[in-house]
């Protein structure tokens, strides 16, 4: 009995239990691997792009709030047409002395405009009648110029007999629908800073009475459209 008790209370001298091997779970996308480097680079590039976009947006917002840029505006206050003959045969149509008065207005308080190139064209039903170059000039802040007075003269063959009916109707009414387009090359000036060149196109749809002494129609001031992106 005492031997059994001693055996139970004594140390256990059986075979040793092997120590369990530690298990290390493999890391996903280790920092030293190529995949981890690519992720870090892409993350850094994205942050830089996002920061640049936010900065540019804030800068543009501040610029707009301070400067408040507005498009240059054009309108025509007066026209005079002394003669307009339409021909559908081999003889060209004749436009004799069509004078117009396009007035550019710069509504900006802090932006000036350089008109480096000005060219006015008169068209009838989409076909060119005459083109006139105009003198370049600079337009200051909150300013409008009244010295632009292109005069269209000359002969131009207009193709299309289907236009004769439209022309006769306008002739009977004493009012002709003539379009004037003004092609510009301009630069803007803000303080001492000058921008690059822009090429807007001005379109003026004019209902012009024939000024031959018999017409009782009067010309109404026409507002022109300004297109900066379709030149």
UniProtKB/TrEMBL annotation:
Q: Which residues cross the membrane?
A: 33-66
Going by the UniProt record, its keywords in alphabetical order are: Membrane, Transmembrane, Transmembrane helix
* Cellular localization per UniProt: Membrane
User: Which Gene Ontology BP terms does the record give?
Assistant: defense response to other organism
Which InterPro entries does the record cross-reference, listed alphabetically?
A: LEA_2, NDR1-like
Primary site of residence: membrane
Q: How does it sit in the membrane?
A: Single-pass membrane protein
The cross-references to Pfam families, in alphabetical order and at most eight, read:
LEA_2
According to the entry, every stretch annotated as the Late embryogenesis abundant protein LEA-2 subgroup domain falls at: 105-199
- Give the CC-aspect GO terms: plasma membrane; plasmodesma
Q: Which PANTHER family match?
A: NDR1_HIN1-LIKE PROTEIN 3, OS05G0367900 PROTEIN
- Report what the protein is called: Late embryogenesis abundant protein LEA-2 subgroup domain-containing protein
Source species, please?
A: Rubus argutus (Southern blackberry)
């Amino acid at each position: 009995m005492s031997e059994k008790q001693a055996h139970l209370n004594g140390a256990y001298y059986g075979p040793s239990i092997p120590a369990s091997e530690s298990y290390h779970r493999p890391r996903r996308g280790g920092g030293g691997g190529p995949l981890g480097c690519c992720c870090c680079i892409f993350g850094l590039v994205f942050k830089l792009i996002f920061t640049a976009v936010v900065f540019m947006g804030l800068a543009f917002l501040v610029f707009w709030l301070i400067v408040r840029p507005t498009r240059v505006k054009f309108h025509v206050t007066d026209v005079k047409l002394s003669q307009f003959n339409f021909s559908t045969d081999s003889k060209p149509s004749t436009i004799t002395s069509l004078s117009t008065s396009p007035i550019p207005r710069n509504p900006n308080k802090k932006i000036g405009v350089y008109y480096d190139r000005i060219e006015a064209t008169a068209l009838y039903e989409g076909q060119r009648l005459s083109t006139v170059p105009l003198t370049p000039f600079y337009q200051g802040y909150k300013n409008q110029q009244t010295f632009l007075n292109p005069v269209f003269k000359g002969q131009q063959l207009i193709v299309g007999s289907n236009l004769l009916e439209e022309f006769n109707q306008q002739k009977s009414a004493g009012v002709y629908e003539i379009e004037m387009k003004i092609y510009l090359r301009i630069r803007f000036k803000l303080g001492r800073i000058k921008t690059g060149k822009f090429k807007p196109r001005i379109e003026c749809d004019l209902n012009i009475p024939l000024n031959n002494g018999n017409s009782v129609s009067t010309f109404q001031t026409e507002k022109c459209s300004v297109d900066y992106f379709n030149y």
